[in-house]
Amino acid sequence: MSFIQDTHDTLWNELADIKDELAARDWFPGTSGNLSIKVSDDPLKFLVTASGRDKRKRTPEDFLLVDENSQPLEETSLKPSAETVLHQRIYQKTNAGCSLHVHTLNNNVISELYGDEGTITFRNQELIKAFNIWDEDGSITVPIVKNYADLPRLAEAVAEQIKPGTFGVLIRNHGITVWGRNGFEAKKHLEAFEFLFGYHLQLKQMTK
Ligand SMILES: CSCCC(=O)C(=O)COP(=O)(O)O
Ligand SMILES: [Zn+2]
């Protein structure tokens, strides 16, 4: 097996394992969600989930390789995720090696509650350290963008919000897109965001 094939297969399996873990949490309701992992930087190539599939199932057709224009690099009847362009823009704007998009109840409720404000900020939470923020008064802010039906426009809206220290963007009443330098870090960021959303909503409920 060639080095290139070996790398491709290793990244495929890494993304498939992440998909299984997120599926076990039920973070892919109704075929929603999409995942990608970068295979090469220059030119940009990444594996992305095929569109419209049940992401709880593990099959040999789960991912396909696409280029820097989100176009398939292989002869296939599979379609890349409808939201591939979001992954593409994240790779073009950050040092991300993996990008994860999930629709959960908590991230949707948070996006609606704070959508008019355009951001939500979390403080005084140990889990902020998951973003490599170690200050005692550290905070993490998540921008919230409108859910444009036009996907290149949505991808630009997400890309515009990416500043140093941004690790995820909420799309209002849609879901969250999160990234990290590799699969491990992207999953860590996603888990931390979902914990912060759940904590916030539970506390709000208990103290009203
Ligand atoms: C039924 S979910 C609507 C599309 C979406 O938001 C999503 O995350 C899944 O789209 P894909 O093309 O990646 O399956
Ligand atoms: Zn989506």
From TrEMBL:
Domain Class II aldolase/adducin N-terminal: 13-201
Keyword Zinc: yes
Keywords, comma-separated and alphabetical: Amino-acid biosynthesis, Lyase, Metal-binding, Methionine biosynthesis, Zinc
EC numbers, comma separated: 4.2.1.109
Pfam families the record matches: Aldolase_II
Keyword Metal-binding applies: yes
Cofactor(s), names only, from the UniProt record: Zn(2+)
Pathway assignment: Amino-acid biosynthesis; L-methionine biosynthesis via salvage pathway; L-methionine from S-methyl-5-thio-alpha-D-ribose 1-phosphate: step 2/6
Enzyme class: lyase
Family of this protein: Belongs to the aldolase class II family. MtnB subfamily.
Assembly with partners or alone: Homotetramer.
Role this protein plays: Catalyzes the dehydration of methylthioribulose-1-phosphate (MTRu-1-P) into 2,3-diketo-5-methylthiopentyl-1-phosphate (DK-MTP-1-P).
HAMAP family named in the record: Salvage_MtnB
Protein name: Methylthioribulose-1-phosphate dehydratase
Lineage of the species this protein comes from: Bacteria, Bacillati, Bacillota, Bacilli, Bacillales
